[in-house]
Specification:
32% of the residues lie in helices and 28% in strands. It is of the alpha+beta class and 212 residues long. The chain folds into two domains: 112 residues, Archaeosine Trna-guanine Transglycosylase, Chain: A, domain 4 (Roll); 71 residues. The strands form two sheets. Strands 1-3-6-7-8 form a five-stranded mixed β-barrel. α2 runs parallel beside α6 and α5 packs antiparallel against α6.
């Protein structure tokens, strides 16, 4: 369910390498560290129930956060007998990290800016002229090369956004490649980036610098 009205300026942030959440997509997470259990408890007490997913990376000052992440609303959770949680985050909107908030919370909180990502909070995005046949053909070669399996009938029927975003989240790309998919400004550019990553993998990769 999309949020209406203003989004908060400060949100809890879950830094997790390789985890990609996109607007209107769903990300399952296993929460067990005490600090993130506290984060979940606090998020559930707010009306928005938001948690921001951001990838960390190595920077000049050590481990830093990428500037762009995506916030998800907790839309489902179940508790195990030993106090752990399986939760589902439903992507709401991307954001830019402005600064980390100092405080006594055991988890990270950041001041964020939602400007520039208004499209994320509207309805599903479509791509005019999307060539599903060519896309699925490329995908088939990739899945065969990587020995991956999928439900092809579901892929053939899925809307463009669900298809592209789900594959962006699920395919085993490198963290920086996942970040490139997250930062793609439109569905068309994300699909083009996805195709480029697949073609790069099929070509066997190279020793060149990773895509930015």
């Amino acid at each position: 369910m999309p949020l209406t009205g203003d989004l908060p300026d400060t949100i809890p942030v879950f830094p997790l390498t390789g985890a990609l959440l996109l607007p209107r997509a769903r990300l399952p997470l296993h929460i067990f560290e005490p600090r993130y259990l506290a984060m979940l408890d606090d998020a559930l007490k707010t009306p928005e129930r938001l948690i921001g997913m951001v990838q960390p990376h190595d920077g000049p000052k050590g481990t830093e956060l990428h500037r762009i992440g995506c916030a998800g609303r907790v839309t489902g959770f179940s508790e195990t007998e030993d106090g752990r949680y399986m939760i589902t985050l439903s992507g709401i909107s991307r954001f830019r990290v402005r600064e980390e908030v100092e405080g006594f919370a055991p988890y990270m909180r950041c001041v964020v800016d939602w400007t520039g990502f208004e499209r994320d909070r509207r309805g599903a995005e479509a791509e005019e002229g999307f060539d599903r046949g060519a896309f699925l053909g490329l995908l088939g070669r990739y899945f065969e090369a990587e020995e991956l399996r999928t439900d092809w009938d579901s892929l053939k029927e899925a809307e463009e956004e669900l298809l592209v975003n789900s594959l962006s989240m699920l395919c085993p790309f490198e963290p920086e490649e996942k970040q490139a998919l997250l930062e793609a400004p439109s569905l068309a550019t994300r699909r083009e980036t996805l195709e480029a990553l697949i073609e790069f993998t099929l070509a066997g990769g190279s020793d060149e610098e990773p895509m930015q």
